[in-house]
Amino acid sequence: MKKLLEISLGIVTSVGGFLEMGSLSTAAQGGAAFRFQLAWPIVVGTVCIVFLTEMSGRFAAVSSHTIADGIRDRFGIKFFLFPFVTTLIVNALVLSAEIGGVSVSLELASGVRHEWWAVPVAVLAWFVLWRSTFGLIEKGMSLLGLVTLSFVAAAVVLRPDWHQVALGAMPGLPRNDAANYWFTVVSILGASITPSLFLFYSSGAIEDSWDRSYLGANRAIAGLGMAFGGVISLAVLIAAGCVFRAYGITRVDSYHQLPLMLVAVFGFWGFILFIASLSFACFGATLEIALEQAYFFAQGFGWNWGENRKPREDPAFSLVYTCALAVSAIPIAAGIDPLKLTVFSMALTALSLPLTVIPFLALMNDESYLGRHCNGVFSNLVVIAIVALSFVLAIVTVPLQILGGT
Question: Which residues cross the membrane (predicted)?
Fold first, then answer.
């Protein structure tokens, strides 16, 4: 019964937490610019994160290590510094974008500009982390985040051409604006295959005291949960493709355009649902990424760590998420556009993937950690192919976007 509860709650966690500022903005951009043509990177990214999440849970359950301390233990502290520094920088940008997402939702609700909300949002997130347990954060915010299923309802009500959606789920070449097409592909993949998600997942498995008896539950959580999350992201792209095109919008360049996806379907209540979806999902992601920064620091350097501990029992761990929130609130408070920051940080996430994923795959093939539970050839090939695709596209398109100023 306990494991069935873990499966159900894990699926709720995945559905409630999958859609955040990264997935929302990149899927909306893709739908507006290319309608259903970019359904395929959502499908590809979801497949990859299913594999990576299952691996991270299996690694934690069998070895009693998180990914971070496994990389440090297997490769040494000098090697660990490469993924460590890169992940911290990328996570800081993504955390800033998530704080921006909550701030934007509060601006939409109150009319007070989002810059003024950044610091209060960071302080609230700090207070929740300081006072709460891991289970309360994981399950509480994820249950609230279920309001994001309103995008699935909108996609069904809009009655898209499902044949065109199916065609978009198969990889294809751009029909126009190739540079923007491939940059959006990279951004969607970066939003789907965020290292903080599977790094956080392994830490959560240790927090919840998983052992080998949880391997079946882990497969169910990773497979069903992440697949449902991918459906939500795909629903955003469908809603954007139907609604924005109907209004002649082919480029989302302001976060004020985003509520239209639900307003066009549900009227005033669509506006309320959008604010609730954005605020709950982004606030949950803010807590998760701030915690992941602390997990990565503490596990990498062998400190005491755990959200279930009192702050006085692991002061360095608490100090890291405090500093992470304070630093990441600064760009939003300074007036940086959360939407542009989000899309660009997702592309940088794709660029940084190999530094985290490749050593992780080495761990997953190390019998000293996993014994007979090591990866199979198929799992390795799927993840390597998708990460390589993301990396190559990021190398090509990110410089083009910087030079082009878009």
Answer: 37-55, 75-96, 116-134, 141-159, 179-201, 221-248, 260-283, 316-336, 342-365, 377-402
